[in-house]
Amino acid sequence: MSAFYREKVLSVQHWTDTLFSFRATRDAGFRFQNGQFAMIGLEVEGRPLLRAYSMASANHEEELEFFSIKVADGPLTSKLQKIREGDTILVGRKATGTLVTDNLLPGKRLLLLSTGTGLAPFASLIKDPDVYERFESIVLVHGCRQVSELAYGEELVAKLRDDELFGPLLQEKLLYYPTVTREPFRNRGRITDLITSNQLFDDLHQGPLDIETDRIMMCGSPAMLEDLKQLFETRSFAEGANHKPGHFVIEKAFVER
After folding, report:
1. Which of 182, 113, 123 is nearest to 154 (CA)?
2. Which of 29, 50, 83, 134 is the most exposed place for a label (fewest CB within 10 A)?
3. Could you tell me which residues are beta bridge partners of residue 115?
């Protein structure tokens, strides 16, 4: 168990019957880049039960935050969704992941494309002043099935807009685009379709996809990631990775269990 920090749960918020978030203490020795993930979980019968979770908190914050799905029979999430203030979670000592800005070629517009709890790493990134220095505009897209599932992201953006430091930055640079697929809402449709049809860019009064200026990060359901990867590769966008920057990067360590 020496490979883990033991952190205390500070608060838990249940957003829907399938989504919750929680905050925990952060050991001063735990370092990460915004957009990365770590193995987190619980000690069950004396052994660690872990899954990869992106930090939804920024690396300059004193507490850790995570955004999670609830799976009734999931080995970890069936237990994790029952945590309460004061409980102990395990946090792996090493953070990793591909959703860091160094893995992207220089560009002007950053598209952050997410579904469900895939929003988590972008919750970290949009609190990073360096991201606003690197890009002229940041487009945060969050796709969900139902309107209620957008609540975490909507509150996140609203709080940042009211923040003394980030408020002015967001006003100039951050464009937030929530969309749903199964209910009436101002934005409707799958992210792939919204990009292919240019609806996303038209709604935001932005120019269409441009390989010269657009850089992309993606996190969400495996089906969405595969569809978007094909979409971008057919337009000659190259996938980036650690030590090899590209036009887009994908986080594959998505939690569905």
Report:
1. 123
2. 29
3. 143
pLDDT attached to residue 165: 81
Is the distance from CB of 187 to CB of 177 less than 8 angstroms? yes
Is residue 55 within 8 Å of 65, Cβ to Cβ? yes
Pairing of strands 19-25, 4-14: antiparallel
Query: CA 206, CA 201: separation in Å to the nearest integer?
Result: 5
Dist. CA 142–CA 221, nearest whole Å: 12
Write the CB contacts of 50 (distance below 8 Å, at least 6 apart in sequence): 39, 40, 41, 76, 90, 92
Beta-bridge partner residues of 50: 41
Classify residue 192 as exposed, middle or buried by CB count within 10 Å of its CB (0-12, 13-18, 19+).
middle
- Per the CB < 8 A criterion, the answer to whether 186 and 196 are in contact is no
- 28 Cβ neighbours under 8 A, 6+ residues apart: none
CA 34 to CA 60: how far, in whole Å?
9
Question: Which of 60, 53, 70 lies closest to 26, judged by CA?
Answer: 60
How many Å apart are CA 54 and CA 38, to the nearest integer?
Answer: 6
Which residue has better confidence, 177 or 257?
Answer: 177
CA atoms within 13 A on the CB side of 60: 7
The secondary structure of 23-84, three-state, reads EEECCCCCCCCCCCEEEEEEEECCEEEEEEEECCCCCCCCEEEEEEECCCCCCCHHHHCCCC
- pTM beyond cutoff 0.85: yes
